[in-house]
Amino acid sequence: MSEDAKPHSDRTPDERPRWLDQPRNIDRIYYGLIALCVISVGADFFYAKHVHYAAEDIVGAYGIYSFVSCVVLVLAAKALRKLLKRDEEFYDADD
User: Fold this and answer.
1) Which of 31, 34, 36, 10 lies closest to 21 in space, CA to CA?
2) Domain hosting residue 78, numbered range
3) In the prediction, which pLDDT does 87 show?
């Protein structure tokens, strides 16, 4: 049996593989997203910007801003988890 056709534990043996079960399709999505990012940053060179702040004039400024914002949100969520985390036995403590 080839690497692409291996049955997964969440499927029945007679169920055919889905399109995301094949690694080459995941690679296609990955490289497709990279191509879309390159195209969207490349589009910055072909239109006139009407900026309000100097930082908006940087090529790919909105992509950089979005990436940094996402990283900050993830790091803030990790820090907030430490404050809000409860023990595994928190709800069973009454017994």
Assistant:
1) 10
2) 49-95
3) 81
Average pLDDT over residues 13-24: 85
Both 71 and 35 in a single domain? no
Residue 88: phi and psi, rounded to 5, are: -60, -30
Q: Is 8 left (phi over 0), alpha (psi -120 to 50) or beta?
A: beta
| Residue 87, token pair as written in the block | 């023990």
Contact 45, 59 (CB under 8 A): yes
Phi–psi pair at 7, nearest 5 degrees: -75, 140
Is the domain of 35 the same as that of 1? yes
pLDDT of residue 94: 62
Give Cβ neighbours of residue 59 (< 8 Å, ≥ 6 apart).
41, 44, 45
pLDDT of residue 70: 95
